[in-house]
Amino acid sequence: MKIGFKYKVQGYNPVTKKVLWEWEEENLVPDYARSSLLAAMFLSGTQYPSFYIGAYANDRAPEYDDVSADLPEYGEIESFSEGARQLWTPAAESGGTLESSATPAIFTATVDIPAVRGVFLSTISVFGSTSGVLFSAFQSASPKSLDAGEQLRIPCSFTMST
User: Fold this and answer.
1) Residue 27 burial (CB < 10 Å; 0-12/13-18/19+)?
2) Is the model more confident about 151 or about 93?
3) Which one, of 45, 39, 52, 5, lies nearest residue 25 by Cα?
4) 84, 129, 76, 82: which is closest to 109 by C-alpha?
5) In sequence order, what are the beta bridge partners of 159?
């Protein structure tokens, strides 16, 4: 069985209403996140009611042994007017997939951001937090930039498949 998140990350100009660039990437689900998921499903483990999307700038590939305490190495981008990681709000389950394409996480840059290299999913909404569970992360092969006022839009889906 395969489990994982897929992100469709877009740079977007809200003035011209044009997509500036786009990535579609599958992620890495760290070991601790997989264990947490199994414990919640089958062993009365902690259930997390909310998940939050964040973006990062450093040239740091996610690893299977990563946990939330490793997020400072990722270089989380906090220069967004929204002031926190954005809530992942998937629609109803369909065919083993939860998807948020109708409600993407949206971040508006308050300054020029020279490098957006990847995104992650955490159980904590606070920018810079090293608490909670790091459920997913990916790094793109080609970093992208945002100018002040431009947006980062991130729909995310979760799939369990055979």
Assistant:
1) buried
2) 151
3) 5
4) 82
5) 4, 97
Classify 158 in phi/psi space as left (phi over 0), alpha (psi -120 to 50) or beta.
Answer: beta
Write out the two tokens for 123: 């159980």
Q: How far is CA 106 from CA 29, 76, 99, 138, 155, in A?
A: 22, 15, 15, 18, 9
Q: Helix, strand or coil for residue 117?
A: strand
3-state secondary structure 11-28: EEECCCCEEEEEEEEECE
Dihedral-angle region of residue 38 (phi above 0 means left; psi in -120 to 50 means alpha; beta otherwise): alpha
Measured CA to CA, the distance from residue 32 to residue 70 in angstroms comes to 13
Contact 29, 4 (CB under 8 A): yes
Measured at the alpha carbon of residue 85, what is the angle toward residues 142 and 147, in degrees to the nearest 5? 45
CB 5 within 8 Å of CB 26: yes
pTM comes to 0.92
74 with 60: CB under 8 angstroms? Answer: yes
Residue 162 confidence (pLDDT) above 80: no
